[in-house]
Amino acid sequence: MLNLERLRTLDALARHGSVSGAADGLHVTTSAVSQQMAKLEREVGQPLLARNGRGVRLTDAGRLLADHAARIISQVEQAQADVEAQRGCAVGELRIGAFPTAMRGLLPRALSALRTGHPDLRVRVREQEPEESMAAVVRGDLDMALAIDWHNKRMPVPAELTRTHLLDDSVDIAVPAGHRLADRDTISLAEFGDDEWISWNEGQFCHEWLVFTLRGTGVEPRIAHIAEEHHTQLAFVEAGLGVCVAPKLGRGPVPPGVRLLPVCDAVRRHVYAVWRADADRRPSIRAAVDALRATAAEFQHA
After folding, report:
1. Which candidate in 85, 257, 263, 287 could, as Cys together with 267 as Cys, close a disulfide (CB 3.0–4.6 Å)?
2. pTM beyond 0.90, yes or no
3. DSSP letter for each residue of 198-238
4. Which residues are registered as beta bridge partners of 123?
């Protein structure tokens, strides 16, 4: 009997092309990937991996089994969807990944509504950046992800996923109270050519968006500090250490030494939910989407 988790490991190896890539995708150690593959090779009775320089490649048998593994994983998702659909109610467990501001601004109220309306549904939430959570949905580690992209830079969504728009999130620029532009009603990003920025980690989609957008206005970004949390970024702004992007969703109280300036060319984030297309009929997915849409509508009309 082939073990499903080992087939997931093989599928990750086939998709990522390396042990380290599979380990990152599965959020396990490279040693764990190697151990799972060694057990799978013993189960099938032939090598699935071969040395390729410093890395590995799939053997013919490995590629053959990886193709089956992808279909098996999809079939498992479909089976779960069919069982739930047959029962006609949202039950079991639903695993959701969400970026930090959605965790604060959307999920608490949406999950409270789900608990009231669907008491037999257990929801488990994980805070993750959109790229990570969407990859987790593709490989089956999560059932749903909340993700974002920007009005001028879209995030690619894997073909295996279905997406639905939840809301458009307006974005201001946070500046210290003593900043030269602090008394303005609106500003243009082109006016920040002399400012230092507090940004997200390099390589993250939002960091790439900021650099892309500033350069599009003729400003060469000067990234002085890196901070993951918006509240931390605002603390740095209040201390006079730079300026930052301040989305409305999940913003919370703004420090007294910070001014929020609307951007005259309307900078917006698009917030949406994604899930595997083969899980589309699961009542738990539909219930979560309904709760998220209702919460998003309340946020936009607040």
Report:
1. 263
2. no
3. EE--TTSHHHHHHHHHHHHTT----EEEE-SSHHHHHHHHH
4. 94
Token pair belonging to 102: 């959605």
The single residue listed with the structure tokens 């899930």 is 275
DSSP per-residue codes, 152-208: TBPPP--TTEEEEEEEEEEEEEEEETTSTTTT-S-B-GGGGTT--EEE--TTSHHHH
Query: Is 274 strand, coil or helix?
Result: strand
For the stretch 81-130, pLDDT in tens is 677 666 667 778 899 999 999 999 999 999 999 999 999 899 999 999 89
How is residue 124 annotated by DSSP?
E
Strand duo 268-276 + 144-150: pairing: antiparallel
Residue identified by tokens 């209702």 is 294
Instruction: Give the amino acid at 140.
Output: G
Q: Which residues contact 271 (CB under 8 A, 6 or more apart)?
A: 102, 106, 146, 147, 148, 165, 166, 167, 168, 169, 249, 296
